[in-house]
Design brief:
CATH class of the largest domain: Alpha Beta
Order of helices and strands: HEHEEEEHEEHHEHEEEHEH
CATH architecture of the largest domain: 3-Layer(aba) Sandwich
Oligomer: single chain
Distance between the termini: 61 Å
Largest sheet: 6 strands, mixed
Low-confidence stretches: 1-5
Strand content: 15-25%
Helix content: 25-40%
């Protein structure tokens, strides 16, 4: 008789990651998150005229237009970071590697758990906006271990969508712009498979907050294996396509187009001044996160 498989409960997920990932990363960072995240919690204090060394993200464009000269907002440092997770739960996020049984959605849940726990262990607050074809659920920003468990629980309850219109991330970014008033650290976790038009709201979001883009992807989205004629279902629309993977030229064309999309996305992040992390379903996300922290630490030390 086979043993029943364990159910992925919030407590079990947090316990597994606490032992395997969170404690190790916390030791690596020694709790010094404020030096790694530049957009930590701040409160508005005053306005003054822009000076050449000022960060352009602090420019108040409304006051600048009225005064006909650039003005920047000044902030006083708060004692805590407020972080928000903008989570793409559209149908394409339910794609994953067969060999590892690791969907992009599974990686998303684990990654949010790790970051939320790392931040809340040191008195910071976290919240989330969960997005399908629209913002379907919001978890207000709070601190503590119970908040992490609530995030996991609410994520596990979100339905898997199918046969929806092709994803458009623009409403997610616009919703965040309208509802997150206090300057915050914002993690966008998505595969960024979306209609165009989200670039403008993303740039505006990065002007008001510190934004980090975490891109989820599966290797099979870039390179098709040689398995002959296959039927493929578009995860976003439900459309069934017949694809011949036996032809080398067809596979190479598919791979070139996918790699070009990856390059265009990376270029968009760079032009917006947004740091990004690439998470593959067949690789360790803890290694990617550790590498990102190390890069930020080197940048901080260079001044």
């Amino acid at each position: 008789m086979s043993m029943p498989t364990s159910v992925a409960t919030p407590e079990r997920i947090l316990l597994r990651l606490d032992w395997n990932v969170i404690r190790r990363l916390d030791g690596l960072l020694q709790g010094d998150y404020r030096t790694l995240f530049y957009g930590f919690g701040v409160d508005f204090a005053d306005l003054r005229e822009y000076q050449p060394e000022d960060d352009i993200r602090y420019i108040d464009w409304n006051v600048t237009a009225r005064m006909d000269t650039p003005y920047v907002r000044q902030y006083v440092e708060d004692r805590e970071i407020t972080a928000w997770f903008l989570l793409d739960l559209s149908p394409s996020v339910d794609f994953g590697a067969v060999q590892t049984k690791n969907e992009k959605r599974t990686m998303l849940v684990d990654f949010v758990t790790v970051l939320a726990r790392l931040l809340t262990r040191h008195g910071n607050r976290v919240g989330a906006m969960m997005f399908g074809s629209k913002i379907q659920h919001t978890v207000p920003a709070r601190g503590g271990r119970l908040q992490v468990l609530r995030l996991i629980n609410d994520l596990l309850k979100q339905p898997r969508l199918s046969n929806t219109p092709f994803t458009n991330l623009k409403p997610l970014f616009e919703g965040a712009l309208n509802s997150i008033k206090r300057r915050s650290l914002i993690f966008i976790i998505s595969d960024f498979i979306s209609q165009p038009g989200w670039e403008g709201p993303l740039n505006m979001l990065n002007q008001r907050h510190e934004v980090l883009a975490i891109r989820l992807w599966d290797p099979r989205e870039v390179e098709l294996p040689d398995v002959g004629m296959i039927m493929m279902e578009d995860a976003e629309t439900g459309e069934i396509l017949e694809v011949d993977t036996a032809g080398r030229s067809g596979r190479e064309l598919f791979a070139r187009r996918q790699r070009q999309q990856l390059a265009d996305l990376a270029r968009q992040f760079r032009s917006s001044g947004i740091d990004s992390i690439q998470l593959r379903t067949d690789e360790s996300y803890s290694a990617a996160l550790g590498k990102f922290f190390e890069t930020r630490e080197r940048r901080r030390l260079r001044g």
